[in-house]
Structures are given as C-alpha cells and as structure tokens.
Amino acid sequence: MKKQEFQTDLPVMLPVTAKTGEGFNFRLKPWHGLVIVGFCIFSSRLGYAQSDTVQTSSLETLVRWMPLLLQGFIFNLVISVCAMAIGTVVGAALGLGQISLNGWVRKLAWGLTQFFRNSPWLVLLFFAMFLLPFELRLGIFAIPLPDWLKAIIGLSLPVMANVSEIVRGAVTSLPSGQWEAAESLAYTRRQTLWLVILPQCVKRMLPPWMNLYSILTMATVLASIVGVSEVMTLTGQALAAEGGRPELLAPFYSFVLLLFFIYCYPIARWTVYLEKKFAVIN
Amino acid sequence: MSWNDSQPMVSIKNVHKSFGALEVLKGVSLDVMKGEVICIIGPSGSGKSTLIRCINALNDIQEGSILVEGQEVNDSKLDKLELRKKVGMVFQQYNLFPHKTALENVMMAPIRVLKQDKDEVEKTARALIRKVRLEGKEDSYPGELSGGQQQRVAIARSLAMKPDVILFDEVTAALDPETVNEVLLTIKDLADEGMTCILVTHEMGFAREVADHIYFTDRGVIVEHGPPTNFFDNAKDPRTKEFLSQIL
Hints:
heterodimer; A: 282 residues; mainly alpha; MetI-like fold; two-stranded antiparallel sheet; 3% strand; B: 248 residues; alpha/beta; Rossmann fold; six-stranded mixed β-sheet; 37% helix; globular
C-alpha cells in the first residue's frame, strides 16, 4: 500500500517531536557583551563630549568609584539572599498552612498571603522601616535593628506571600491520584505530604521561585529610598561627591544597570532551562 | 465481636452515597467471602468505582453499612489507617510515585507505615517484583516503564502491605490493548493463590474466567448477580441483556 503524505497545517496533526535535553542555552553570545559594555563607554564618552571644562574623563571617574559601587552591589545581593531565605522559610510554612485541614489555620494563612501579596513592595518596606523599633529588648539584651536589617524584613514580607502561593499552587497542581494512592497505602496525612507530595513539588516550585528571586534582587534598590547604603544610594553619593556633573549620570547608572543585568540574566536563562527540563520529564 | 473466616470478609449492606444532589449508590448490598474473586461490571457512571472506593474509605457513605472483617467502615471513629492496612487498592491511572524507583515504590509503605525492617522489606519487595514478572526493572522510574509495567509495579506495591483483600479499580482501562494481558495474568495469579479480590472491570472474558461471582450494576443499584456461567449465558434482567449484547 502506498504511504499517504498527509497535508495539514493543524498543529495536532503534525508529528510529535519530544524536546530532549537541549542543554543549558545561555543565548547571549560574547559579542552581545561587547555591545553592552560599548554602550556604557559610548554613553560616558557622550557625556564627556558635552562637558566643556577639561576634567578627568567620565570613564576614569567611573573606574575610580567602581570599588565602592561594587561594594554597594554586594550589599544588595546580601539583602536579596537574606530576604529570600527568610521569605522562603516563613512563606513555605504559610503555604502549608493554606492547605491545612484545620479551617482556621487555612483561613489565617490565606488572609496573610493575600494581604502581603497584594500590597506594593515599597509600602511594605516603609511599613517595616517605620514600624519596627531601632532595637529589640529581650530582658537585659538589646538587639539592635539597623536599617538594612529592617529592609531585609520589609522585603521578605512580599517574598513570603509569593512563596506561600508557589507552595500552595504546586501542591494543588499534583494529580489527586497521588494523594489517593498514598492514603490507600495507609500513609498518614503528614507522611503523604512529606514523602509523596512535597518531593514532587520541589521541581515544580523551583522555576517560579528563581523567578521571584530575580524580581527581589532588582527590588532591593528600593532600600535606597529608605536610606540603606546599597548601590543606588552610593551611586547618588558618588555623583554628589563629583559635584553633580550631569555627564556622569548616564555612565554611572548604566554601570549599575549592567551589574544587575549580569547577575539576573543568567538566573533567568537557568530558570528557562529548568522549566524545559522538568516539562520533558513530567 | 470477633470476626472469623466463615463470615464474609467484606459485607456491604444497603449503601447509599450521594455527591451533592446526585445519588450515585441507591442501596447496594453484596458479600465477599475470604478467597473469593468478585467482578463488578456495568455501564459508565453506574457507581462501580464509587462503590469500591467506599470499601477503603476513600469515599464516605451517607447510609448503610460496610463491614470489613467485622469492622464497621461507616463510623466517624473509624481508624482509617488500620482499615487501609488490610485493604489494598490498585487504580486505573497506576498512581505510582514518579520520584521513586519501582523498587522504592514497593518498599516505601512497609518501611514507613508498617515500620518493618528495611533489609527484610527489600527482600520481599524484590520477590514481589519477580512475582509480577518485572525482574531487572527494580531501578527504573515509573516514567521509564510502559503502562502495563507500571500497573504491575502498582500491584506489587499493594501486595507489599500484605493486605487481606485488594480492590482493583478498572486497572486495565488506561492500558494499550497489547499490555492488558500481562496485567490480567498477574491478577489471575493472585486469584489462583487465594487472594480475596474485588474488581471493577470492563474485561468480560477475564471476568468470566477468574470471577467466582459477577455483579452487574446500573444507575446505582445491583441489577443482577450470579456465578459467571449463569450470568453470561442466562441473564434474566432486560438491562443486563442489553448491556451484554452491546459488549459481547
């Protein structure tokens, strides 16, 4: 019998090809980096050309401030990692609360999650800044609460709420057959959750969790508004120390953008990679 | 009140079950003796699966009584865990734990639930995997196995708990035709060894071969029941006749 060629443009009729281990694709090539750095240099040259008095070039000025700005950026990363850690631990607990069998626990966890998830991050940050005392008194001990610590707490609140939703979403996305199979093997609810459900959820939670971390990292600059000496605050101070030369604005802020981009872009690509990888396995 | 072998192992009396306004079971009764194999057949939506899911309390019932080895299941103080140690279940969709290998799937419950010794459990688990003819697949993940192989692992997983009765909920309905037989063969082995089995199935030939008793359900009631030869050759109720004429 002659094999018939099927002519169609319906996606469902096309042969299925499984997406198999494409591997991690960074997507950006080295020449992209040259373009980005080139843009920064160009913007600084542009600024230089506009200034009439002969001073040190913008680029030289920027290079001189770089160590300080990098220090500030590292502080941003510290804030992001700490806020993520706190937010993840508390948020995971809150997420488990949202699937609790106890109605009151469930409602409370749901309420907290919704409240913090639907509040602007900046407002939560101000909230933490001005409502938390400058030190915590525990008997004779006084634990100081510096601004940066308050900023971590403030930023961990929306992270907590988002992690809570990620956990709840992952648990409810598992087929109910998994619960039933574990129940019919006489697992307790706790055993079902910890041995069967949550281990499967980790894979599902990882990509959105990393996404959230990227967003948090970029949101750490909000702390500059409340006076924490992170990279944006230091950039502002450096510019002021240079006498507010307008031609320095573009190169300095480009540099800050570049730092965040170099840090966050690989995370975004890694997330895409994990999403693809887990989608194939499941 | 002690239970012994001369009484039914599972005794279902006048069971009613509704999902909201929809009444799925409208007074079902049946008895299963130790070592007996019964098959429940009937059109889709007639309440077959719901009925067997009530036996291990995955579904609760509104009215009636289900006794498993003399223990009442329709009881708010029921120890579900104790009940489920006695009643195994195999599902249509296998429901293996995808993050564990075949061997681990079989070993998990005896270790975690029955707190048995790990080495002992591993020995039994390997024997069970041999028994369901999957030697060499111990370290495969469910995703690497065919439907029929997964279903046989699921049977081994259920057997590892050494249940007194096993519920099979349309276990071949999701399988490719060519793998149905390997699963049916495994169930037949169990039946021949004297395991008490309650099957919901669409495999009429198989039901005829292994069942001691056939129950035909339609719209929430048992319309007719009897030993397979009587049932298939001399069905009396018009609804049974119509159903059989459509599928045989």
